[in-house]
Design goal:
By secondary structure, the protein is an alpha+beta fold. It has seven helices and twelve strands. The strands form four sheets. Strands 2-1-5-3-4 form a five-stranded mixed sheet, with helices on both faces. Strands 10-11-12 form a three-stranded antiparallel sheet. The longest helix has 17 residues, at 88-104. The radius of gyration is 21 Å and the shape is globular. The N and C termini lie far apart (45 Å). This is 2Fe-2S iron-sulfur cluster-binding protein. It comes from Streptomyces fuscus.
Length: 286
């Protein structure tokens, strides 16, 4: 007989989102409540396996009585709260954030960003040809994954996943200040000379493709990467007895990358180097 832990019941809060009454469990964020109500709120730095960083500010909403716009990803819902997600003030803020991000970094591999730029009427090109951009060549210093600062929005998700929230390797952090700030390893050395254990959990949480599988990077460069032709199959890792779940991304009968379900109670989206990168033996047909 299988039993399911129900946990401690949470009190339901009553408030409104865009004038519509909603209920959400106590402790929920505004973003949680919006998603439950079917209200689309864009976000880049929010991660369902990490604590909110409030870095990108694309998810800001208006709350009655609040002087400033608030980040929906971290602001807790309160009873009687009046939340508005599509006011002119909110839309203008999101437009500016998207313009600033798209004018400074390459968002071509960021899911949904083109849709949001169109929805909010953002015009990244209005800053002109002299707008500062992060034009750095991707760093390919190992056979497993690639670092591309030209796509990085400094959301800190990779730093948190590598640090005290998951891996505790502390191999990567933010170096520099202002526009020169970068995600880097100690002394800005090659990845192979750092404390990195190649778990790839930083890739799992990266929202823009600034961190990517070497296999994906090579296929994109060759013009053969096609997610519409890929299938996803979730299975159990065969390397040890922990029982981590793997989602195999397959294109043309070849595994092109491995992720892990974020709702899995064993992994919560995290894997070790063997689970995430040790799949070549499966398709060694020699």
């Amino acid at each position: 007989m299988t039993t399911t832990a129900l946990g401690i019941p949470r009190r339901l809060l009553e408030f409104t989102i865009d004038g519509e009454p909603v209920r959400a469990p106590e402790g929920s964020t505004i973003l949680d409540a919006c998603r439950a109500a079917g209200t689309d709120v864009p976000t880049l730095c929010e991660g369902d396996t990490l604590r909110p960083r409030n870095a990108c500010r694309v998810c800001v909403v208006e709350v009655e009585g609040s002087r400033t716009l608030v980040p929906a990803c971290s602001r807790k819902a309160e009873g009687g709260m009046e939340v508005r997600t599509g006011t002119e003030r909110v839309r203008h803020s999101r437009k500016i954030v998207l313009e600033l991000l798209a004018s400074s970094v390459d968002l071509s591999t960021t899911p949904r960003v083109r849709e949001w730029i169109k929805e909010y009427g953002a015009e990244p090109g209005r800053f002109g040809a002299d707008a500062g951009r992060v034009n750095e060549a991707p760093r390919v210093d190992n056979d497993l994954y690639v670092r591309d600062s030209g796509k990085c929005i400094l959301c800190y998700k990779c730093v948190d996943a590598c640090g005290d929230q998951w891996q505790n390797s502390f191999a990567i952090s933010v170096a520099g200040r202002g526009f020169d700030a970068r995600i880097a390893v100690e002394h800005d050395a090659p990845l192979t000379e750092s404390a990195c254990v190649y778990c790839g959990n930083c890739i799992e949480v990266c929202p823009t493709g600034a961190l990517s599988f070497k296999s994906e990077f090579d296929m994109r460069a060759a013009g053969t990467w096609d997610e519409d032709r890929q299938t996803e199959t979730t299975t159990v890792c065969a390397y040890c007895g922990v029982g981590c779940n793997l989602t195999l991304h397959v294109q043309d009968n070849e595994i092109v990358k491995v992720t892990s379900p974020h709702d899995n109670p064993v992994t919560h989206g995290n894997l070790c180097i063997k689970g995430r990168f040790g799949y070549q033996h499966v398709q060694n047909r020699n």
